[in-house]
């Protein structure tokens, strides 16, 4: 049972919950979170740190998760705090305390593949941690958005599903829900934070993620998603904007998941079976006709 509080403040109608006592923060996670807070305090960075996405969802469901994504809210000398910059302060802190350090990996922006924001990956106590700043995406006539620093509510609204759009605030130790994630998780519904066509325009791969998460968590697909998912423009966008490798990864996860038959049923409901399996070049049992990840020459 998750207790929910309704609070009003900077972000109206934010719902706040506590993690279940049986599936709260582990000792290792507490050490990681305490280090992040120490870095923020020691170097006077003034950031608000939140865990975002799948870790929060899984913890609310009483499941184990090692997928720690840190969303950063704040700025440094007038510029938005980036994951790469915060990672540099983490490395500095680790060096000053005689701790193991590793190379910081950075995935750069790639609008053609719907990657609109830089992400940094570092390691704390041997665990991989992704860091990225909160963002808002504004679309004009182009499919490539103008990205700017955003509020938690704005950031939550541009995520794929409401159940993946919740935050765990490291400072308050509260779960923060700016959409309908808590309600949808309890009612077992997959729903997009914005209109599905808007969400799929941002990244058409989210159509496949809707399928995977609906099957994985035995959720119903909201009617608005079904309507958008059968739109030929969405199918065309999936073919043009998403790489074969990304499609292949999603399909592989589906067939390795707990309910591949349900995935196929939803694909048929979305009328996109041919589109998806043409992209990943595999049969309908998930067997690849050629390697999903071809070797570089």
**In which range does the helix fraction lie?**
25-40%
Return Rg in Å: 20 Å
**Order of helices and strands, N to C?**
EEHEHEEEHEEEEEHEEHEHHEHHHHH
Report the sheet-strand fraction.
Answer: 15-25%
Strand order of the largest sheet: 1-2-13-12-3-4-9-8-7
Number of strands: 15
Quick one: biggest sheet? 9 strands, mixed
Question: If helices are DSSP runs of H or I spanning 4 or more residues, what is the number of helices?
Answer: 12
Oligomeric form = single chain
> So what's the overall shape?
globular
Summarize the model shown:
This protein is α+β, with helices and mostly antiparallel strands and 297 residues long.
Structure description:
With 297 residues, the chain is α+β, with helices and mostly antiparallel strands. Strand 12 (167-169) and strand 13 form a beta hairpin. Helix 7 (206-216) packs parallel to helix 10 and helix 7 (206-216) crosses helix 11. The strands form four sheets. The protein has a nine-stranded mixed β-sheet with strand order 1-2-13-12-3-4-9-8-7. It is globular and about 55 Å long. The chain has twelve helices and 15 strands. The protein has helices spanning 27-42, 54-60, 83-96, 152-157, 181-187, 196-202, 206-216, 223-229, 232-241, 244-255, 260-270, 273-280; strands at 4-7, 14-17, 48-52, 68-73, 75-76, 79-80, 105-107, 119-124, 127-133, 135-138, 146-149, 167-169, 174-177, 189-190, 220-221. Residues 3-12, 111-116 and 289-297 have low confidence and may be disordered.
Which characteristics define this entry?
9-stranded mixed beta sheet; 12 helices; disordered N terminus; 297 residues; globular; two-stranded antiparallel ribbon; alpha+beta; disordered C terminus; single chain
